[in-house]
Design brief:
The protein is mostly helical and about 190 residues long. The protein has helices spanning about 5-15, 15-25, 35-65, 70-90, 105-115, 115-130, 130-150, 150-190. The chain is globular and about 60 Å long.
Length: about 190
Amino acid sequence: MHPFIVCFVTLFVAVDAIGILPLFLALTEGFSKKELRTIVLQSVLTALVVGLAFLFVGQGLLSLLGITIADFMIAGGILLFVISMLDLISTEKRQGIGAAESVGAVPIGVPLMVGPAVLTTGILLIREFGVLLTSVSLSLNIAIAGFCFWFSNSIARVLGKNGSKVISKLASLLLAAFGVMMVRKGVMIYLEK
């Protein structure tokens, strides 16, 4: 499979735009169309800045702290697995509370769009596929999430509440599998030493 497709799909699963759509709808209920568009733009810009900044600074931070890639792969894989398991067994995504002026940045942009799963996945993907592919994949996935939020009411009507939950659970299962793969690769790096 082409590296870009692997990178893109992995981040698509981590961002989980369809899975957080019901929460987005709940957090933005009662806002005017103008306010809704402002919230979508805030969330996309916040997620993009935080996500890309972490991609570029994350590797240096790991080196500064003396954390090897194998360490991060194992810890990150376990974290992704735990996050995905919590999503799989919970009935709803955890909700944050925010005012109309800031709900786009927090909690929608961070941590819902770009949270621990996306940051961990991004660092791991940089090691596998490089900064360029990972940055482009992350940017496209954030744009897709913004698109979903922009047309949230229409998408929610098409998918229905149950359809959205099924897609979210499937995405969590794929993220769990990716976490296990990262742990396996990290352990293999240790064994090769």
